[in-house]
Amino acid sequence: MVKIVLDAGHGLNTPGKRSPDGEREWCFNNEVINACTEKLATYENVQVMRVDDPTGKTDVSLRKRTDLANRWNADIYVAVHHNANTGKWGSWTGVETYVMDSPTVGSTSLKLARLVGPQIAKAMGLKDRGVKRANFHVLRETKMPAILTEGGFMDSLIDIKALRSKEKLKKQGETLAEVLAVYLKLQPKLEKKFI
User: What average pLDDT does the structure give for the chain?
Assistant: First the structure.
């Protein structure tokens, strides 16, 4: 059984995590996570654990999130976010994927990030800004390969058009699931046919 942890980053009311028009990052993240979870359910032998609050009402601590993932012995940890630059509208654009390879994980996270980034950029119709390294808690404290995606800038006049499209957010989530399926060698569930 393959165990995948999904993390929709932040809570609904976390201060500062908004577009200049007040749209909440958690809402974008949640759309992606829900689509990813639904798509992963179409594969055999996979379990998904969500470590943020699926209602968005509570901003679950980062320590609690990584502790849950580590205790569960997850195979992969994916945190889904959407970026901001200055908090005011601008013309920056693109998708970023973050890693921080721990000594216990090696370069596995980097391999996954290199697969995920270009594909979710394509799904969103945005530029791929590449893989970056960062000392983020969820990347540093997890005992399994972990990536953090930034699926576009909430304060970008370019990216916000994609972020406001439920269809594109759904596509980002489904694409994420498909890349994870390839990476983890998951097999699609066979449809049962009744005669």
Answer: 95
Could you say which of 96, 150, 174, 178 is catalytic?
150
Instruction: For residue 25, indicate whether it is catalytic.
Output: no
Q: Compute the distance between CA of residue 155 and CA of residue 178 in angstroms, rounded to an integer.
A: 28
> Can you list the domains of the chain with their CATH numbers?
2-183 (3.40.630.40)
pLDDT, tens digit (0-9, with 9 covering 90-100), for 93-127 = 999 999 996 666 667 899 999 999 999 999 999 99
The number of beta carbons lying within 10 Å of the beta carbon of residue 190 is: 7
- Please give the model's pTM, rounded to 2 decimal places: 0.95
Which residues have a Cβ under 8 Å from the Cβ of 194 and sit 6 or more positions away?
none
How far apart (Å, rounded) are the C-alpha atoms in residues 32 and 25?
A: 11
Q: Measured between alpha carbons, how far is residue 100 from residues 6, 36, 130, 147, 178 in Å?
A: 17, 23, 14, 8, 23
